[in-house]
Amino acid sequence: MESRASMAPAPRALPYYVAFSQLLGLTVVATTGAWLGLYRGGIAWESALQFNVHPLCMVIGLVFLQGDALLVYRVFRNEAKRTTKVLHGLLHVFAFIIALVGLVAVFDYHRKNGYADLYSLHSWCGILVFVLYFVQWLVGFSFFLFPGASFSLRSRYRPQHIFFGATIFLLSLGTALLGLKEALLFKLGTKYSTFEPEGVLANVLGLLLASFGVAVLYILTRGDWKRPPQAEEQALSMDFKTLTEGDSPSSQ
């Protein structure tokens, strides 16, 4: 009975917003694939199409999977906290690995073709996002999954972890939009202003990327949609407060 009572029902609108965000995310991935397939020749590792691995991997990893990792604590509201943490961390690992493949693809493509690296704003933002993403995961693992971190350290770092997670997600979206615009200008040049079909499709992709980001951030910022604390979490919090502030049940 106690475990049932501690299970808070999901807000009525939350599942619909989550489903809408997933529909947007999958549409972003599908549209990216369609753009690369219809106008860029598809993808392959050992050919001139190697470059196309980069945008596809970055969209899957640092946009779609990263967004889903951020939503884990809204979707799995009544599961054990550690299970939710592990899922959150694993999704970030998968996102990081896929993004790493995309990063290796573009550097390898540039090396094979004698192109310069890291000269554009898109590439600078991309490296910044990738480094921040790795550091964020590493620090998050150390604080929240590694057993050595104390409850007090976790409590103090949690707001920073949440803030930087949302910030890196926003930076990822902005970097993707910069890369999309750069790719269009390189290939289409002045034809971009003549409403070329590729340009129109890529513009739609850009709007979908922005919409997915807005949907994810809206779900995250709704205070009444936050994951409710479970009974064991509340007990740990009360024990910590009693030890550090000398509070007792009678003083509440």
From TrEMBL:
Query: What molecular function terms (GO) are annotated for this protein?
Result: metal ion binding; oxidoreductase activity
Q: Is Cytoplasm one of the keywords?
A: no
Q: Where is the Cytochrome b561 domain?
A: 20-221
One annotated Gene Ontology cellular component of this protein: lysosomal membrane
Q: List where the protein spans the membrane.
A: 14-38, 58-76, 88-107, 127-149, 161-180, 200-220
Name of one Pfam family that matches: Cytochrom_B561
What role does it play? Transmembrane reductase that uses ascorbate as an electron donor in the cytoplasm and transfers electrons across membranes to reduce monodehydro-L-ascorbate radical in the lumen of secretory vesicles. It is therefore involved the regeneration and homeostasis within secretory vesicles of ascorbate which in turn provides reducing equivalents needed to support the activity of intravesicular enzymes.
What name does this protein carry? Transmembrane ascorbate-dependent reductase CYB561
According to its UniProt entry, this protein's organism is: Equus asinus
Q: Which gene encodes it?
A: CYB561
